[in-house]
Amino acid sequence: MTNRIQRLLFVLAASFLLAFGISGAQAQEDARPPFVFAVDGLWPTLDPVIGISTTGGRVHTNIFDTLVRRNYDEDPEGNTLVPGLAESWERTSPTVWTLTLREGVLFHNGEEMTSEDVAFSLSAERLWGEEPMAPRGSNFARGLVRVEATGPYTVELETEFPDATFIARLTTAIGFVLPKAYYEEVGTDAFGQAPIGTGPYQLTEFDPSERAVAVAFDEYWGEPAPFSQVTWLVVPEFSTRLAGLASGQYDLIINVPIDQQDVVASTPGVKLLVNQVGNYPMFAFNTLTVDGMDDNPLQDANLRKAMVAAIDMNEITEALWDGQTFTPTPFNFPEYGDYYDAEREAAIGYDRAQAEAYLDASDYNGETLIWHVVRGFFDNYETAAEFMIEEWRDLGINVEMRILDNFALAYERPFHLLNMSMSSEFTGDPYRPLWLDWGPSSSRVTASHRTWEPSEAFLEAGERFERAEEFEERNAAYLDLVAAWEDVTPGMYLWRNLQTFAMREDLDWTPGNTQVTVFDARFVDPQS
Fold first, then answer.
1. Which of 69, 150, 170, 381 could bridge 175 with an S-S bond, Cβ 3.0-4.6 Å?
2. Which residue ranges does UniProt annotate as crossing the membrane (predicted)?
3. What mean pLDDT do residues 42-48 have?
Protein backbone atom coordinates (compact mmCIF):
# COMPACT_ATOMS: atom_id res chain seq x y z
CA MET A 1 0.00 0.00 0.00
CA THR A 2 1.48 3.39 -0.98
CA ASN A 3 1.99 6.18 1.51
CA ARG A 4 -0.49 8.30 -0.44
CA ILE A 5 -3.23 5.68 -0.10
CA GLN A 6 -2.39 5.24 3.58
CA ARG A 7 -2.82 8.95 4.15
CA LEU A 8 -6.10 9.06 2.24
CA LEU A 9 -7.43 6.15 4.28
CA PHE A 10 -6.31 7.95 7.44
CA VAL A 11 -8.25 11.08 6.50
CA LEU A 12 -11.30 9.08 5.43
CA ALA A 13 -11.29 7.14 8.69
CA ALA A 14 -11.15 10.33 10.71
CA SER A 15 -13.96 11.81 8.63
CA PHE A 16 -16.08 8.69 9.14
CA LEU A 17 -15.66 8.84 12.90
CA LEU A 18 -16.43 12.54 12.99
CA ALA A 19 -19.54 12.08 10.83
CA PHE A 20 -20.96 9.88 13.55
CA GLY A 21 -19.77 12.17 16.35
CA ILE A 22 -17.14 9.69 17.54
CA SER A 23 -13.46 10.46 18.01
CA GLY A 24 -10.81 7.78 17.82
CA ALA A 25 -10.27 7.95 21.58
CA GLN A 26 -14.00 7.81 22.28
CA ALA A 27 -14.36 4.85 19.96
CA GLN A 28 -12.09 2.95 22.32
CA GLU A 29 -14.30 3.97 25.28
CA ASP A 30 -11.69 6.38 26.59
CA ALA A 31 -12.29 7.11 30.26
CA ARG A 32 -10.69 10.54 30.00
CA PRO A 33 -13.14 13.45 29.79
CA PRO A 34 -13.55 15.62 26.69
CA PHE A 35 -12.71 19.31 27.03
CA VAL A 36 -14.35 22.35 25.42
CA PHE A 37 -12.57 25.71 25.24
CA ALA A 38 -14.77 28.62 24.07
CA VAL A 39 -12.59 31.16 22.23
CA ASP A 40 -13.28 34.45 20.50
CA GLY A 41 -11.76 33.36 17.18
CA LEU A 42 -9.46 31.01 15.29
CA TRP A 43 -6.76 31.85 12.76
CA PRO A 44 -7.59 30.83 9.15
CA THR A 45 -4.69 28.35 8.94
CA LEU A 46 -3.06 25.97 11.41
CA ASP A 47 0.32 25.97 9.70
CA PRO A 48 2.19 27.10 12.83
CA VAL A 49 4.46 29.59 11.03
CA ILE A 50 1.98 31.06 8.57
CA GLY A 51 -0.52 31.12 11.43
CA ILE A 52 1.66 32.96 13.98
CA SER A 53 -0.97 34.76 16.05
CA THR A 54 -2.60 34.88 19.46
CA THR A 55 -5.55 32.83 18.22
CA GLY A 56 -3.31 30.32 16.47
CA GLY A 57 -1.14 29.91 19.56
CA ARG A 58 -4.11 28.59 21.50
CA VAL A 59 -4.06 25.51 19.26
CA HIS A 60 -0.55 24.95 17.86
CA THR A 61 1.30 23.51 20.85
CA ASN A 62 -1.39 20.89 21.35
CA ILE A 63 -0.99 19.62 17.77
CA PHE A 64 2.75 20.16 17.28
CA ASP A 65 5.94 20.02 19.36
CA THR A 66 8.92 22.34 19.14
CA LEU A 67 12.51 21.13 19.12
CA VAL A 68 13.23 23.09 22.31
CA ARG A 69 10.81 24.29 24.97
CA ARG A 70 10.69 27.12 27.47
CA ASN A 71 9.87 25.79 30.93
CA TYR A 72 6.59 27.66 31.53
CA ASP A 73 5.25 24.64 33.42
CA GLU A 74 7.91 25.16 36.14
CA ASP A 75 8.70 28.89 35.79
CA PRO A 76 5.91 31.36 34.95
CA GLU A 77 8.32 33.51 32.91
CA GLY A 78 9.79 30.48 31.09
CA ASN A 79 13.33 31.77 31.42
CA THR A 80 15.18 28.48 30.91
CA LEU A 81 15.21 26.04 28.01
CA VAL A 82 14.38 22.34 28.23
CA PRO A 83 14.40 19.52 25.66
CA GLY A 84 11.48 19.05 23.31
CA LEU A 85 11.80 16.97 20.16
CA ALA A 86 15.52 17.65 20.39
CA GLU A 87 16.81 15.47 23.21
CA SER A 88 19.99 17.55 23.40
CA TRP A 89 21.94 20.22 21.53
CA GLU A 90 25.59 21.12 21.34
CA ARG A 91 27.52 23.95 19.81
CA THR A 92 30.05 21.96 17.82
CA SER A 93 31.79 24.98 16.27
CA PRO A 94 31.40 28.74 16.63
CA THR A 95 28.75 28.75 13.88
CA VAL A 96 27.30 25.21 14.07
CA TRP A 97 24.75 23.70 16.42
CA THR A 98 24.21 19.93 16.40
CA LEU A 99 20.82 18.64 17.50
CA THR A 100 20.24 15.09 18.69
CA LEU A 101 16.60 14.09 18.19
CA ARG A 102 14.38 11.81 20.21
CA GLU A 103 14.00 8.41 18.64
CA GLY A 104 10.65 6.73 18.16
CA VAL A 105 8.60 9.95 17.94
CA LEU A 106 5.58 9.41 15.68
CA PHE A 107 3.60 11.83 13.59
CA HIS A 108 -0.16 11.54 13.75
CA ASN A 109 -0.17 9.57 10.49
CA GLY A 110 1.97 6.86 12.13
CA GLU A 111 5.23 7.76 10.37
CA GLU A 112 8.36 8.26 12.48
CA MET A 113 9.89 11.70 12.79
CA THR A 114 13.47 11.78 11.49
CA SER A 115 16.16 14.33 10.85
CA GLU A 116 14.83 14.79 7.32
CA ASP A 117 11.61 16.20 8.73
CA VAL A 118 13.53 18.57 10.99
CA ALA A 119 15.79 19.69 8.15
CA PHE A 120 12.75 20.36 5.96
CA SER A 121 10.93 22.26 8.71
CA LEU A 122 13.92 24.63 9.09
CA SER A 123 14.93 24.67 5.44
CA ALA A 124 15.54 27.57 3.09
CA GLU A 125 12.78 26.12 0.91
CA ARG A 126 10.26 26.49 3.70
CA LEU A 127 11.50 29.45 5.79
CA TRP A 128 14.42 31.57 4.70
CA GLY A 129 15.16 31.20 0.99
CA GLU A 130 14.34 33.70 -1.74
CA GLU A 131 10.72 32.49 -2.10
CA PRO A 132 9.97 30.40 1.00
CA MET A 133 6.72 28.52 1.56
CA ALA A 134 6.22 30.23 4.93
CA PRO A 135 7.86 33.66 4.58
CA ARG A 136 6.74 34.78 8.06
CA GLY A 137 9.43 32.46 9.39
CA SER A 138 12.29 34.28 7.70
CA ASN A 139 12.70 36.80 10.51
CA PHE A 140 12.95 34.06 13.17
CA ALA A 141 15.37 32.07 10.99
CA ARG A 142 17.57 35.15 10.46
CA GLY A 143 21.23 34.14 10.13
CA LEU A 144 20.67 30.53 9.09
CA VAL A 145 22.82 29.50 6.10
CA ARG A 146 22.68 25.68 6.27
CA VAL A 147 20.39 23.02 7.70
CA GLU A 148 21.54 19.44 7.15
CA ALA A 149 20.40 16.01 8.30
CA THR A 150 23.69 14.34 9.23
CA GLY A 151 22.20 11.08 10.49
CA PRO A 152 18.74 9.58 11.11
CA TYR A 153 18.46 11.53 14.38
CA THR A 154 21.06 14.31 14.09
CA VAL A 155 20.80 17.69 12.42
CA GLU A 156 23.35 20.46 11.94
CA LEU A 157 22.32 24.10 11.92
CA GLU A 158 24.89 26.57 10.62
CA THR A 159 24.59 30.31 11.12
CA GLU A 160 26.21 33.14 9.19
CA PHE A 161 28.07 34.33 12.29
CA PRO A 162 28.64 32.92 15.79
CA ASP A 163 25.22 33.09 17.45
CA ALA A 164 25.29 31.84 21.02
CA THR A 165 21.54 32.22 21.45
CA PHE A 166 20.19 30.83 18.18
CA ILE A 167 19.01 27.68 19.93
CA ALA A 168 16.41 29.76 21.81
CA ARG A 169 14.67 30.47 18.52
CA LEU A 170 13.81 26.78 18.27
CA THR A 171 11.20 27.46 20.96
CA THR A 172 9.36 29.71 18.49
CA ALA A 173 7.06 28.74 15.65
CA ILE A 174 10.01 27.79 13.42
CA GLY A 175 10.87 25.08 15.98
CA PHE A 176 7.70 23.08 15.28
CA VAL A 177 8.54 19.94 13.33
CA LEU A 178 6.32 19.04 10.37
CA PRO A 179 6.22 15.82 8.30
CA LYS A 180 8.21 16.54 5.13
CA ALA A 181 6.53 13.99 2.85
CA TYR A 182 2.97 14.94 3.80
CA TYR A 183 3.65 18.69 3.65
CA GLU A 184 5.23 18.45 0.21
CA GLU A 185 2.45 16.19 -1.03
CA VAL A 186 -0.52 18.34 0.01
CA GLY A 187 1.07 21.81 -0.14
CA THR A 188 1.09 24.76 2.20
CA ASP A 189 -2.58 25.72 2.00
CA ALA A 190 -3.93 22.20 2.42
CA PHE A 191 -1.53 21.49 5.25
CA GLY A 192 -2.86 24.52 7.12
CA GLN A 193 -6.38 23.08 6.93
CA ALA A 194 -5.46 19.47 7.79
CA PRO A 195 -2.14 19.58 9.67
CA ILE A 196 -0.22 16.62 11.02
CA GLY A 197 2.17 17.02 13.94
CA THR A 198 3.74 15.06 16.78
CA GLY A 199 1.78 16.69 19.61
CA PRO A 200 -0.41 15.15 22.31
CA TYR A 201 -3.59 15.77 20.30
CA GLN A 202 -4.41 14.90 16.69
CA LEU A 203 -6.58 17.29 14.68
CA THR A 204 -9.76 15.75 13.28
CA GLU A 205 -11.85 18.78 12.35
CA PHE A 206 -11.10 22.38 11.46
CA ASP A 207 -13.40 25.17 10.34
CA PRO A 208 -11.80 28.47 11.38
CA SER A 209 -15.19 30.18 11.50
CA GLU A 210 -16.61 27.60 13.90
CA ARG A 211 -14.33 25.11 15.61
CA ALA A 212 -11.21 22.97 15.77
CA VAL A 213 -11.37 19.47 17.23
CA ALA A 214 -8.46 17.26 18.22
CA VAL A 215 -8.43 13.84 19.89
CA ALA A 216 -5.80 12.38 22.19
CA PHE A 217 -2.93 10.83 20.24
CA ASP A 218 -2.27 7.63 22.09
CA GLU A 219 1.14 7.11 20.45
CA TYR A 220 2.41 10.41 21.82
CA TRP A 221 6.04 10.26 22.93
CA GLY A 222 5.40 12.19 26.18
CA GLU A 223 2.96 11.71 29.01
CA PRO A 224 -0.56 10.74 27.88
CA ALA A 225 -2.93 13.61 27.14
CA PRO A 226 -5.30 14.27 30.06
CA PHE A 227 -8.37 14.74 27.85
CA SER A 228 -9.89 12.39 25.31
CA GLN A 229 -10.72 15.31 23.05
CA VAL A 230 -10.19 19.07 22.96
CA THR A 231 -12.60 21.35 21.11
CA TRP A 232 -11.83 25.02 20.43
CA LEU A 233 -15.29 26.48 19.84
CA VAL A 234 -15.66 29.96 18.35
CA VAL A 235 -18.05 31.97 20.56
CA PRO A 236 -17.52 35.67 19.76
CA GLU A 237 -19.68 37.19 22.52
CA PHE A 238 -18.40 37.12 26.10
CA SER A 239 -21.91 36.90 27.58
CA THR A 240 -22.57 33.75 25.54
CA ARG A 241 -19.26 32.25 26.60
CA LEU A 242 -20.00 32.91 30.26
CA ALA A 243 -23.51 31.49 30.04
CA GLY A 244 -22.16 28.34 28.40
CA LEU A 245 -19.51 27.96 31.10
CA ALA A 246 -22.03 28.42 33.90
CA SER A 247 -24.34 25.80 32.35
CA GLY A 248 -21.54 23.27 31.92
CA GLN A 249 -21.47 23.50 28.11
CA TYR A 250 -17.87 24.77 28.17
CA ASP A 251 -14.96 23.97 30.48
CA LEU A 252 -12.85 27.08 29.82
CA ILE A 253 -13.49 30.48 28.23
CA ILE A 254 -11.14 33.26 27.13
CA ASN A 255 -11.07 37.06 27.61
CA VAL A 256 -13.05 38.20 30.64
CA PRO A 257 -13.54 42.00 30.49
CA ILE A 258 -12.31 43.76 33.61
CA ASP A 259 -15.80 45.10 34.37
CA GLN A 260 -17.11 41.51 34.35
CA GLN A 261 -14.46 39.95 36.57
CA ASP A 262 -16.51 40.36 39.76
CA VAL A 263 -19.49 38.75 38.03
CA VAL A 264 -17.35 35.77 37.00
CA ALA A 265 -15.76 35.42 40.45
CA SER A 266 -19.21 35.26 42.06
CA THR A 267 -20.69 32.76 39.58
CA PRO A 268 -21.24 29.36 41.27
CA GLY A 269 -19.00 26.58 39.98
CA VAL A 270 -16.73 29.03 38.11
CA LYS A 271 -13.32 30.47 38.93
CA LEU A 272 -11.45 33.40 37.43
CA LEU A 273 -7.83 33.28 36.27
CA VAL A 274 -5.92 36.48 35.45
CA ASN A 275 -2.26 36.44 34.46
CA GLN A 276 0.20 38.71 32.70
CA VAL A 277 1.66 37.49 29.43
CA GLY A 278 4.69 38.39 27.34
CA ASN A 279 2.86 40.83 25.09
CA TYR A 280 2.70 44.62 25.17
CA PRO A 281 0.04 46.77 23.45
CA MET A 282 1.57 49.94 22.06
CA PHE A 283 1.35 52.34 19.17
CA ALA A 284 3.87 53.17 16.48
CA PHE A 285 4.49 56.69 15.28
CA ASN A 286 4.56 56.89 11.51
CA THR A 287 7.87 58.73 11.09
CA LEU A 288 7.98 58.42 7.28
CA THR A 289 7.03 60.52 4.26
CA VAL A 290 5.88 57.65 2.05
CA ASP A 291 2.59 57.25 0.15
CA GLY A 292 1.62 60.89 -0.06
CA MET A 293 2.58 61.84 3.50
CA ASP A 294 5.27 64.35 2.53
CA ASP A 295 4.04 66.83 5.14
CA ASN A 296 3.93 64.33 7.99
CA PRO A 297 4.50 66.33 11.22
CA LEU A 298 5.75 63.20 13.00
CA GLN A 299 8.99 63.31 11.04
CA ASP A 300 10.01 65.61 13.88
CA ALA A 301 11.40 63.62 16.84
CA ASN A 302 10.65 66.53 19.18
CA LEU A 303 6.93 66.16 18.47
CA ARG A 304 7.08 62.42 19.12
CA LYS A 305 8.93 62.96 22.39
CA ALA A 306 6.47 65.65 23.44
CA MET A 307 3.60 63.21 22.95
CA VAL A 308 5.28 60.53 25.08
CA ALA A 309 6.28 62.94 27.86
CA ALA A 310 2.73 64.33 28.02
CA ILE A 311 1.14 61.04 29.08
CA ASP A 312 1.08 59.68 32.63
CA MET A 313 0.78 56.10 31.40
CA ASN A 314 1.25 54.64 34.88
CA GLU A 315 -1.85 56.48 36.08
CA ILE A 316 -3.91 55.38 33.06
CA THR A 317 -2.82 51.76 33.45
CA GLU A 318 -3.68 51.79 37.15
CA ALA A 319 -7.10 53.29 36.46
CA LEU A 320 -7.95 50.85 33.69
CA TRP A 321 -6.52 47.66 35.16
CA ASP A 322 -6.87 48.21 38.92
CA GLY A 323 -3.29 47.17 39.68
CA GLN A 324 -3.38 43.92 37.70
CA THR A 325 -0.59 45.00 35.37
CA PHE A 326 1.97 47.78 34.83
CA THR A 327 3.46 50.14 32.26
CA PRO A 328 6.98 49.01 31.31
CA THR A 329 10.13 50.95 30.71
CA PRO A 330 10.70 50.38 26.96
CA PHE A 331 12.18 46.94 26.33
CA ASN A 332 12.82 46.29 30.00
CA PHE A 333 10.58 43.28 30.56
CA PRO A 334 10.60 40.66 33.36
CA GLU A 335 10.73 37.84 30.81
CA TYR A 336 14.20 39.08 29.75
CA GLY A 337 15.79 37.18 32.64
CA ASP A 338 19.25 38.56 33.40
CA TYR A 339 18.71 41.50 31.05
CA TYR A 340 15.83 42.82 33.16
CA ASP A 341 16.66 45.71 35.49
CA ALA A 342 13.77 46.65 37.77
CA GLU A 343 15.46 49.96 38.60
CA ARG A 344 15.96 51.24 35.06
CA GLU A 345 13.71 54.14 34.06
CA ALA A 346 12.61 55.32 30.64
CA ALA A 347 14.71 58.00 28.95
CA ILE A 348 11.47 59.89 28.26
CA GLY A 349 9.01 59.60 31.12
CA TYR A 350 5.96 61.56 32.14
CA ASP A 351 7.03 65.19 32.56
CA ARG A 352 4.59 67.90 31.57
CA ALA A 353 7.17 70.67 31.55
CA GLN A 354 9.50 68.59 29.41
CA ALA A 355 6.62 67.81 27.04
CA GLU A 356 5.99 71.54 26.59
CA ALA A 357 9.70 72.10 25.92
CA TYR A 358 9.81 69.36 23.30
CA LEU A 359 6.68 70.77 21.64
CA ASP A 360 8.14 74.29 21.59
CA ALA A 361 11.27 72.91 19.93
CA SER A 362 9.22 71.16 17.22
CA ASP A 363 7.81 72.50 13.96
CA TYR A 364 4.27 71.35 14.81
CA ASN A 365 1.58 73.80 13.65
CA GLY A 366 -1.60 72.23 14.96
CA GLU A 367 -2.15 69.67 12.20
CA THR A 368 -4.57 66.82 12.98
CA LEU A 369 -2.77 63.51 13.55
CA ILE A 370 -4.76 60.40 12.60
CA TRP A 371 -4.58 57.37 14.93
CA HIS A 372 -5.73 54.07 13.39
CA VAL A 373 -7.12 51.67 16.01
CA VAL A 374 -8.55 48.21 15.27
CA ARG A 375 -11.89 47.82 16.98
CA GLY A 376 -11.81 45.74 20.17
CA PHE A 377 -8.48 44.09 19.39
CA PHE A 378 -6.94 44.96 22.78
CA ASP A 379 -8.98 45.29 25.95
CA ASN A 380 -9.17 48.89 27.19
CA TYR A 381 -7.13 50.21 24.26
CA GLU A 382 -9.79 52.57 22.91
CA THR A 383 -10.49 53.89 26.42
CA ALA A 384 -6.79 54.52 27.02
CA ALA A 385 -6.58 56.27 23.65
CA GLU A 386 -9.42 58.62 24.60
CA PHE A 387 -7.58 59.63 27.79
CA MET A 388 -4.37 60.20 25.85
CA ILE A 389 -6.07 62.27 23.16
CA GLU A 390 -7.46 64.57 25.86
CA GLU A 391 -4.00 64.98 27.42
CA TRP A 392 -2.50 65.80 24.02
CA ARG A 393 -5.31 68.29 23.31
CA ASP A 394 -4.53 70.08 26.58
CA LEU A 395 -0.91 70.35 25.45
CA GLY A 396 -1.95 71.70 22.03
CA ILE A 397 -1.59 68.52 19.93
CA ASN A 398 -4.63 67.43 17.91
CA VAL A 399 -5.16 63.68 17.47
CA GLU A 400 -8.17 62.02 15.86
CA MET A 401 -8.82 58.34 16.60
CA ARG A 402 -10.31 56.33 13.75
CA ILE A 403 -11.66 52.95 14.84
CA LEU A 404 -11.48 50.39 12.04
CA ASP A 405 -12.79 46.85 11.73
CA ASN A 406 -9.53 45.06 10.86
CA PHE A 407 -5.80 45.53 10.35
CA ALA A 408 -6.12 45.56 6.56
CA LEU A 409 -8.04 48.83 6.91
CA ALA A 410 -5.78 50.11 9.68
CA TYR A 411 -2.72 49.66 7.47
CA GLU A 412 -4.11 51.95 4.76
CA ARG A 413 -2.51 55.39 4.72
CA PRO A 414 -2.80 58.15 5.68
CA PHE A 415 -2.18 57.45 9.35
CA HIS A 416 0.15 59.05 11.86
CA LEU A 417 -0.22 56.56 14.72
CA LEU A 418 -0.99 52.85 14.41
CA ASN A 419 -2.11 50.47 17.14
CA MET A 420 -0.29 47.18 17.52
CA SER A 421 1.26 44.92 20.10
CA MET A 422 4.68 43.36 20.42
CA SER A 423 5.27 39.88 21.78
CA SER A 424 8.31 39.34 23.98
CA GLU A 425 7.93 35.74 25.02
CA PHE A 426 9.60 33.76 22.26
CA THR A 427 13.32 33.90 23.00
CA GLY A 428 13.66 34.86 26.65
CA ASP A 429 15.88 37.87 25.89
CA PRO A 430 15.60 41.20 24.02
CA TYR A 431 16.44 39.67 20.63
CA ARG A 432 12.92 39.18 19.28
CA PRO A 433 10.98 42.23 20.54
CA LEU A 434 13.79 44.74 20.10
CA TRP A 435 15.92 43.61 17.16
CA LEU A 436 13.67 41.28 15.15
CA ASP A 437 10.52 43.39 15.59
CA TRP A 438 12.18 46.79 14.99
CA GLY A 439 15.31 45.88 13.02
CA PRO A 440 16.00 46.03 9.27
CA SER A 441 14.08 42.82 8.42
CA SER A 442 11.01 43.67 10.51
CA SER A 443 7.58 44.64 9.24
CA ARG A 444 8.11 48.03 10.89
CA VAL A 445 10.74 48.62 8.18
CA THR A 446 9.75 46.45 5.20
CA ALA A 447 5.95 46.09 5.10
CA SER A 448 3.57 48.30 3.12
CA HIS A 449 2.48 49.81 6.45
CA ARG A 450 6.08 50.45 7.57
CA THR A 451 6.54 53.26 10.06
CA TRP A 452 10.26 53.94 10.51
CA GLU A 453 13.79 53.57 9.20
CA PRO A 454 16.29 52.46 11.88
CA SER A 455 18.98 54.95 12.68
CA GLU A 456 22.65 54.20 12.11
CA ALA A 457 23.12 53.99 15.88
CA PHE A 458 20.28 51.46 16.17
CA LEU A 459 21.66 49.31 13.36
CA GLU A 460 25.21 49.37 14.72
CA ALA A 461 24.09 48.41 18.23
CA GLY A 462 21.78 45.72 16.86
CA GLU A 463 24.52 44.08 14.84
CA ARG A 464 26.79 44.10 17.90
CA PHE A 465 24.03 42.59 20.00
CA GLU A 466 23.28 39.91 17.42
CA ARG A 467 26.92 38.85 17.14
CA ALA A 468 28.00 39.19 20.78
CA GLU A 469 29.07 35.97 22.49
CA GLU A 470 29.25 36.83 26.19
CA PHE A 471 26.46 38.20 28.36
CA GLU A 472 28.34 41.35 29.35
CA GLU A 473 28.98 42.24 25.71
CA ARG A 474 25.39 41.44 24.73
CA ASN A 475 23.97 43.41 27.64
CA ALA A 476 26.03 46.49 26.78
CA ALA A 477 24.90 46.29 23.15
CA TYR A 478 21.29 45.77 24.27
CA LEU A 479 21.39 48.94 26.39
CA ASP A 480 22.86 50.87 23.45
CA LEU A 481 20.09 49.46 21.25
CA VAL A 482 17.41 50.66 23.68
CA ALA A 483 19.06 54.08 23.91
CA ALA A 484 19.10 54.38 20.12
CA TRP A 485 15.40 53.41 19.97
CA GLU A 486 14.46 55.92 22.66
CA ASP A 487 16.49 58.63 20.93
CA VAL A 488 14.30 58.21 17.86
CA THR A 489 11.10 57.38 19.82
CA PRO A 490 9.27 55.50 17.04
CA GLY A 491 6.52 54.30 19.40
CA MET A 492 5.15 54.08 22.92
CA TYR A 493 4.43 51.00 25.05
CA LEU A 494 1.26 51.09 27.14
CA TRP A 495 1.13 48.09 29.50
CA ARG A 496 1.94 44.43 29.87
CA ASN A 497 -0.98 42.54 28.46
CA LEU A 498 -3.30 40.48 30.60
CA GLN A 499 -4.78 37.16 29.69
CA THR A 500 -8.00 36.29 31.43
CA PHE A 501 -9.85 33.01 31.64
CA ALA A 502 -12.87 31.68 33.42
CA MET A 503 -13.03 27.95 34.02
CA ARG A 504 -15.03 25.35 35.82
CA GLU A 505 -14.17 25.34 39.50
CA ASP A 506 -12.77 21.81 39.66
CA LEU A 507 -10.39 22.27 36.71
CA ASP A 508 -6.70 22.38 37.65
CA TRP A 509 -5.04 24.04 34.67
CA THR A 510 -2.16 26.53 34.70
CA PRO A 511 -1.36 28.57 31.58
CA GLY A 512 1.95 30.17 32.67
CA ASN A 513 2.69 33.74 31.60
CA THR A 514 2.36 32.89 27.93
CA GLN A 515 -0.24 33.49 25.25
CA VAL A 516 0.04 29.84 24.27
CA THR A 517 -2.56 27.51 25.79
CA VAL A 518 -1.46 23.91 26.28
CA PHE A 519 -3.66 21.08 27.53
CA ASP A 520 -1.09 18.37 28.09
CA ALA A 521 0.01 16.66 31.30
CA ARG A 522 2.49 19.43 32.13
CA PHE A 523 -0.26 22.02 32.54
CA VAL A 524 -3.34 19.97 33.47
CA ASP A 525 -3.85 17.86 36.58
CA PRO A 526 -5.53 14.76 35.11
CA GLN A 527 -7.48 14.31 38.35
CA SER A 528 -9.31 17.61 37.88
1. 170
2. none
3. 94
On the question of a cis peptide bond just before residue 414, with omega within 30 degrees of 0, the verdict is yes
Give the burial class of 169: count Cβ atoms within 10 A of its Cβ; 0-12 exposed, 13-18 middle, 19 or more buried. buried
C-beta neighbour count of 152 within 10 angstroms: 11
- Three-class SS of residue 353? helix
**Cα separation values, 283 from 158, 295, 339, 373, 401, Å:** 36, 20, 24, 9, 12
Contact 251, 36 (CB under 8 A): yes
CATH number at residue 354: 3.10.105.10
For the segment 94-117, what is each residue's pLDDT rounded down to a tens digit?
999 999 999 999 999 999 999 999
The number of domains in the chain is 2
pLDDT digits (tens, 9 = 90+) for 396-419: 999 999 999 888 899 999 999 999
What domain range includes position 419?
280-493
Instruction: Look at residue 420 and tell me if it is in a domain.
Output: yes
Instruction: Supply the DSSP string of 210-268, one letter for each residue.
Output: TEEEEEE-TT-SSSPPSSSEEEEEE---HHHHHHHHHTTS-SEEE---GGGHHHHHTST
In our burial notation (b when 16+ CB lie closer than 10 A, e otherwise), range 390-400 reads: ebbeebebebe
To 10 degrees, what angle do helices 471-488 and 456-467 make? 160
State the Cα–Cα distance between residues 121 and 31, nearest whole angstrom: 35
Which of 48, 41, 69, 25 lies closest to 523 in space, CA to CA?
69
Same domain membership, residue 203 and residue 295: no
